[in-house]
C-alpha cells in the first residue's frame, strides 16, 4: 500500500507513535460493525480522545465516507461552527487539496444579527455561510453548537441548500443529542454523527483528518 505523504505525521518518530497508537486502538476496541473506511474514521476519533465508547457512538449514513472523499478531492470548503475546528485542521493537508476553512461565529454582523432577532450567533453564522453560497457542495463541521446544526437542517429543508457532507458532533446538554438525531433522519444529505451528548471540536477534526487521509490514498491509487 502506498504511504500517504501529506496526511501523515511529518517525522518518522511521529509516524511511528501514531501507527503504534492505532495498533493499540485496533487491539483493544473489540468487535465493531463498521466498514474498513468507517473504522479508519472511528479509530482516529478514539485515538484523539482515548475514549473507546466512540466504537458504537459514531454513526454514518451509508454514503458519508465516499461523499467526504469526493468533496475533498473537489477542494470543497469546510464551514465550521467554531474557530477551534479551523485551527485544529492541518493547513498543509488542506492546502494539498486546495481546501479552505470558514467560520463566522465572531463576525460583527453575525453578532449584531443575533442580538437583533434574539437568536444565537451560531444560527446567524450558518445563515451567513448560506448567503455566501458556501454550504452548497461544502463540508459542514459542527462540534460545539447544536443550534448551528439545526439551522443547517432548516436551510436544507426550507431553502434547498445541499452540503456535500455534514459532520455533526455538537457536545452538550441542551439540544445536542436531539440535533444529531434530527440529522440522522435526513435522507438526502450524507452525515457523520456521534450519538448522545458526547462530541466536540476535537472529534470533528479527527474525523476530517481521517477522511483527508482516505482521500489522499484514493488520489495516489487512482
From TrEMBL:
Q: Which GO terms describe its biological process?
A: cobalamin biosynthetic process
| Stretch forming the signal peptide | none
Alphabetical list of Gene3D superfamilies matching this protein = Cobalamin biosynthesis CobH/CbiC, precorrin-8X methylmutase
Q: Does the keyword Isomerase apply?
A: yes
UniProt-recorded Gene Ontology molecular function terms: precorrin-8X methylmutase activity
Q: What class of enzyme is it?
A: isomerase
Source taxon at top rank: Bacteria
Instruction: For this UniProt record, give its keywords in alphabetical order, as a comma-separated list.
Output: Cobalamin biosynthesis, Isomerase
Q: What region holds the Cobalamin biosynthesis precorrin-8X methylmutase CobH/CbiC domain?
A: 16-213
Instruction: Name the Enzyme Commission number(s) assigned to this protein.
Output: 5.4.1.-
Query: Under which pathway is this protein filed?
Result: Cofactor biosynthesis; adenosylcobalamin biosynthesis
Family membership noted in the UniProt record: Belongs to the CobH/CbiC family.
The name of this protein is Cobalt-precorrin-8X methylmutase
Species assigned in the record: Methylotuvimicrobium alcaliphilum (strain DSM 19304 / NCIMB 14124 / VKM B-2133 / 20Z) (Methylomicrobium alcaliphilum)
State the taxonomy lineage: Bacteria, Pseudomonadati, Pseudomonadota, Gammaproteobacteria, Methylococcales
